[in-house]
Amino acid sequence: MASVARQHTGLLCAGVLLGLLGVGASLAQPWAIGNLIVAAGGGASMTGPVAQLVGLFCAGALFSSLQAYVIGRAGENIVFDVRRILVGRLLRADLTAFGKESQGDIFTRTVTDTSLARIALAQSLAQLIVSGATVVGGIVLMFLIDLWLMVITMGCLGTASVVSVALARKLRKAALQNRDDTGAFAGGIQRVLSALPTVKASRAESREAARIGELAESTRRSGIRVNAYNALLMPSMNVGTQGALAVVVGVGMAWVARGEMDMASLTTFIMYLFQLVSPLVMLFMGVGQLVQGRAAIQRVDELARLPQEGDTAAGAPGPALPGQLAPHWPAVEFHDVRFAYRRGKREERTQVLDGVSFSVPTRGLTAVVGPSGAGKTTMFQLIERFYPVDGGLVRLGGRDIEALPLDTVRALVGYVQQDSAAMRGTIRENLTYANPHAGDAAIREAVEMAGLTSVIAQLPRGLDTELGDQGSGLSGGQRQRLCIARTLLQQPAVMLLDEATSNLDSDSERDFREVLRRVSRHCAVIAIAHRISTVIDADQIVVMEAGRVRATGVHQDLMERDELYRRLAGSQLHAEPGPVAPAPRPVPVEPWAPPPSIAVGWPSYAGLAEQTMQLRPVKSEEHW
Ligand SMILES: Nc1ncnc2c1ncn2[C@@H]1O[C@H](COP(=O)(O)OP(=O)(O)OP(=O)(O)O)[C@@H](O)[C@H]1O
């Protein structure tokens, strides 16, 4: 934050300069009043002193309002830059580090803490400088009027300052605690709001209300502590100035009575003392705000230091587009890959992949099956390079993915996640998310391929229908197909489908198998499937168990030689109603011709759609 603030030094300095000019105008006012008293007492013309006074009033008002505007503007510029940088760093954050943070706390740091930091960096800092200058200027002028009255004043104010500094220290600690408590409260709210149906279905409203109530209570307690220290800070200064005023008036009047001081000097001194009260209060208010702001700045800086995805190959030269994936290399290869997740602040390791090796050809359907927790999704996340491998090698088109720019890896690989992530926004925005330049014809065809045409036709605003958070407004199956269409529009070289058929009924699943077959003629499709029937005719099936590849082969082959596969397939194929699954049929792989670029890497959608038009129209939403 400090480095961002430094970029706005010009505006900040201009604000401070205007403030100092305002200070000069205010400090000259008692002197002008002194002149007025002398002129009135001596019977001289008062026009000059009155004009002086009016000029100083106007200049003071003008400079202080200009200062407020300029400083406010600098503050907004600083917070804008900080938020822009923060958002960029959050979106590029390393997933392991990101996963350790509470999203509610991240939200609080990005929105509220940046605002508090703005107040501290711009307003409070300027207030401190300007008020400090007023106090110092006032003290010097008072010193010139009378040394001993000044010593009395400094004694009272000094005592009050010692108390105030001690209070400011305590205030900072309390403010930091309060910011952390507010972050935890926001995290609690975010946690339940993102799972509201689960909360209701589990009848956990009261429990959650109590839990969040406790977080709110902690925030209240630390907030009260902040207020208490804040409340003590200003009066401690006020007591000092009031004490000084009482002593100065008493002693000064005695000196005037004895003829040791003239009335005009005492009046000017007292006016300076009065003038000190407000800047002193502002000074300590500024200290309070700055102290609270420092706590916020500390939290913003911590967030900005979130580790980033390492793009070791960001500037690496060389081929990057699908058209340049060497045809003689497999699309994806795993060589003895080992990987462990790191959990919690202590980075405890959970070994998930333990020497995984297999390869996927540039065309055709590869299915990955295995019991829950075997590491199938993790494998996909490594292909997307969400995490670096701990050992071994993942290759894409024959190249180590660590040596490819991240952007290229993610352009080459399309990923339909297990939980079908859709977002708030229109259906069109969701569809074109990975390819914002997709035209209407391409959208229509991707929608047709994913079997969404009739669903969208029934919506009043069609593609422009707004979806709620996480794509609410569509059924689970429709959301899943929306994500498939989105990935189709991306035209990837490798398409990863994680349980993409889990929400489809058996008729729709049959149609989807047909789509898979079509798509797999144009790119490598890797599909995780719990339903063996979806991938029974895959060109290759990889059986995973406990982080290892147990066997690879085609259905019939695996039925004969792998016990786990036989068990998985046997229980499902016998348990599932409907027609017996067809015998494995190798997919005819079309001769490969390297497409020139990602944009044209796929054949025209028209061709693909023509072959898949026979997708069964959806009769009702329930069927999906
Ligand atoms: N972000 C994470 N942090 C820590 N451990 C994780 C994380 N994600 C997954 N795991 C662990 O890794 C293991 C493998 O998970 P993964 O999701 O890859 O399994 P899977 O085979 O896809 O399971 P399923 O078929 O149920 O989706 C599990 O034991 C899980 O607990």
| Number of strand segments | 12
Proportion of helical residues: 55-70%
In CATH, what is the homologous superfamily of the largest domain? ABC transporter type 1, transmembrane domain
Number of domains: 2
Q: List the uncertain runs.
A: 314-324, 577-601, 603-624
Tell me the name of the CATH class of the largest domain: Mainly Alpha
Spatial gap, N to C terminus = 50 Å
What spatial order of strands do you see in the largest sheet? 6-9-10-3-11-12
Structural class: alpha/beta
Q: Strand share of the residues?
A: 5-15%
So what's the overall shape?
elongated
Radius of gyration: 36 Å
Topology diagram in text:
Blueprint: H1 2-6, H2 9-42, H3 47-91, H4 95-100, H5 103-145, H6 147-193, H7 196-201, H8 205-257, H9 263-304, E1 332-343, E2 348-360, E3 364-369, H10 376-383, E4 391-396, E5 399-400, H11 406-412, E6 413-416, E7 425-426, H12 427-431, H13 440-449, H14 453-458, E8 466-467, H15 476-490, E9 494-498, H16 506-519, E10 524-528, E11 540-545, E12 548-553, H17 555-561, H18 563-575, H19 605-612
Parallel strand pairs: 3-10, 3-11, 6-9, 9-10
Antiparallel strand pairs: 1-2, 1-4, 4-5, 7-8, 11-12
Adenosine-5'-triphosphate (ATP) binds near residues 341, 377, 378 and 418.
Model description:
Keywords: ATP-binding, Membrane, Nucleotide-binding, Transmembrane, Transmembrane helix. InterPro entries: AAA+_ATPase (IPR003593), ABC1_TM_dom (IPR011527), ABC1_TM_sf (IPR036640), ABC_transporter-like_ATP-bd (IPR003439), ABC_transporter-like_CS (IPR017871), P-loop_NTPase (IPR027417), Type_1_exporter (IPR039421). Its main location: membrane. Residues 14-292 form the ABC transmembrane type-1 domain. This protein has 624 residues and is an alpha/beta fold. It folds into two domains: 2-304, ABC transporter transmembrane region fold (Up-down Bundle), CATH 1.20.1560.10; 363-387 and 408-618, 3-Layer(aba) Sandwich (Rossmann fold), CATH 3.40.50.300. The chain has helices at 2-6, 9-42, 47-91, 95-100, 103-145, 147-193, 196-201, 205-257, 263-304, 376-383, 406-412, 427-431, 440-449, 453-458, 476-490, 506-519, 555-561, 563-575, 605-612, and strands spanning 332-343, 348-360, 364-369, 391-396, 399-400, 413-416, 425-426, 466-467, 494-498, 524-528, 540-545, 548-553. The strands form three sheets. Strands 6-9-10-3-11-12 form a six-stranded mixed β-sheet, with helices on both faces. A hairpin with a 4-residue loop joins β1 and β2. α2 (9-42) packs antiparallel against α3 and α13 (440-449) packs parallel to α19 (605-612). The two termini are 50 Å apart. 40% of the residues are buried. Residues 314-324, 577-601 and 603-624 have low confidence and may be disordered. The site of adenosine-5'-triphosphate has 14 residues, from β1, β2 and α10.
